[in-house]
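Record 1 of the preview.
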Amino acid sequence: MYELFKNLGVWLTSGEQWSGADGIAHRLAEHLQYSLLATLIAAVIGLPLGLLIGHTGRGAFVAINLASFGRALPTVGLVVLVFLASGLSMWPVYVALVALAVPAIVTNTYAGMTAVDPDVKDAARGQGMRAHQVLFQVELPLALPLIMTGLRLALIQVVATATIAAYVSFGGLGRYVFDGLAQRDLVQVLGGAVLVALVAVVLDLALSGLQRALFLPHSRLRSSGGTPTRPA
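->
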């Protein structure tokens, strides 16, 4: 075991291992590209849907159940299915990653919107605010902590699962895992897994710090009663 971790340390810190097309730096950039793009696409789909059903209260049953269905889909199976339909491309990977990320974004956005105190919304309407003003100036800011939590969960899940890009012969940190398994190179497999875990932890800490920064003014709004002022 000591030798394994010693070799892992050498593998991770070797300058040669970080350079070139198969180096850690290049594979890390690929992994981040896959993860961030898939999460962005999922946010474009999930955020408006969650805001809509949370604001109107309509379609919640269908949307939440569809989101749960997407969460239950086997990721590798979905990759293989789309791969058979579209051929060798990154589409199967992106479809699978987006399907994985959307449920967390939709459910947390919906939960954040429904958690807003109805009295606060009534006060906003009573002061003459229109529906879109209530949504963007009252509900959305108050729901932001839970929405950010959904985005964090989605991104971490996607980062951990983006290793499947290597399953269909593309790059990313998963390349080390799949190549290591094929070559029976335990150090390479462990190195890929450690790198994926480190990326997930760093991104989670970064988003957690951003969430705290964004949450602070909204917590003050809640502590002051959350009553908005009518815009001039």
